[in-house]
Amino acid sequence: MAYLTAALILVGLLALINLVFTFGVVRRLREHTAELAALRGSGVTGVGGTDVALPAGATVGAFETAEVGGRPVSLAAMGERPLVGFFSPHCAPCKERLPLFAEHAASRPGGAGEVLAVVVGTPEETSDVVAQLLPVATVVVEPDQGPVQRAFGVSGFPAFVLLEDGVVGASGFDFEPVASRDAAAAVPSAG
């Protein structure tokens, strides 16, 4: 009976120690989440102090690539105001914003020829995301830090960029501000 009591006390102490460590881990995770949110909000993440892509006013670098069907893709052939989205199949925010991007892209006057979607990963990893984007965009699959990502200064996912007259008009992690700028620019001015 004494062995049973000692074993129960030992198991109870181990459970208590485990509980204390679990509370510590949860507390640290909350602190890290708050710190990441503060960094994201301050705009100091990414390349050169910008968000997740080149900032407004920047010029996109040159790149050579091909879309999933094999046709060459160049920025010059994408019209005056191409919309570009960068996605990763392993990124939870990408999965959240993908339907918004696809819906907006489908409603753009320029059609899929003026929307570029870059999906990062292997063809096997990216097949579901590519299938969702093909009806509304020119889709490129490339490895991490591929030529299109480097040209746009992409440092995180998702990233959205609206080009206007060859320079970045709007960019960011959140799609809504980029979509709003795109929708406003698509409306002809009265007058």
TrEMBL record:
Checking InterPro entries in the record gives:
Thioredoxin-like_sf, Thioredoxin_domain
Q: Which Gene3D superfamilies would you find in this protein's record?
A: Glutaredoxin (3.40.30.10)
Mind listing the GO molecular function terms for this protein? isomerase activity
Keyword Disulfide bond part of the UniProt annotation = no
Signal peptide residues on this chain, from the entry's feature table: none
Thioredoxin domain residues:
54-191
**Which terms are listed as keywords in the entry?**
Isomerase
Name it.
Answer: Thiol-disulfide isomerase or thioredoxin
